């Protein structure tokens, strides 16, 4: 039986992340689990007895999980290493919002224990594959977990683009750019640009124009099977393609960027099957004062009990009843734990 191993990725520019990494490594090692760290982080972490790995996809091969200590940016960096390996990411938020993270800094010891005892679930998140072309020539290919954005490269001039959905032109926009996002990315750049929040289990792609000068410049939600293309018009300034704010490619006038559903998802480890609604409320600090939740109706006597004028499944005087599934007019379905 091969030895268990965990890859630890940390934002070593933060002293707290370094201390957290050292604690994680100590606890995992005590449990007999081999620990890997990246060669660019090993000196800063400074722990003996770890396996130092090159910063490539090989670092995550055959690892049980990748523990990521930092913010969403650190997790997106780690996703570069794990996507092809299929190793799940477990994020511990040491940043600000940390939408992709599963645990907070105060839960670090418990999080390590859950890894040691294999008490976590794994879910897959949709990605997008991105190809840039010009006159049929491929300029580059890449991918994104959150979004691919086509943006102007010169501040003083607008970018002129035309957007195509499934081979048909939709509209041209003079704008600062266009964001093509996944549901996971709907709470990232696309959210800041005015796009909708999409629940992660919804399979779709978002097309969100940035500061467009147009009567029709609303955010769009399209099929996950759609091919979205953004063409940079030939008489416009050069543009730049950004994927997850990490990978970039210059786009000359006349370039075409094609975005489609990714062939490989990213896998995230989950400790708590918390409804996404609860995650939104917590991360954004949304006000929910006044929510009463689902109101259960009191049990009504049935005909079997000899109550006059009632029959099973009906309300008073034989009127159809709502039973236990009904709620008050202002109530909402309960957002309890799943599983």
Automatic annotation (TrEMBL):
Enzyme class: transferase
Gly residues biased stretches: 315-339
Entry annotated with the keyword rRNA-binding: no
Cofactors: a divalent metal cation
InterPro entries, A to Z: ATP-NAD_kinase_N (IPR017438), ATP-NAD_kinase_PpnK-typ_C (IPR017437), NAD/diacylglycerol_kinase_sf (IPR016064), NADK (IPR002504)
Keyword list, A-Z: ATP-binding, Cytoplasm, Kinase, NAD, NADP, Nucleotide-binding, Transferase
Gene3D superfamilies tied to this protein: Probable inorganic polyphosphate/atp-NAD kinase, domain 1, Probable inorganic polyphosphate/atp-NAD kinase, domain 2
Comp. bias (Low complexity): 303-314
Enzyme nomenclature, EC number: 2.7.1.23
Protein name per the record: NAD kinase
Gene (name only): nadK
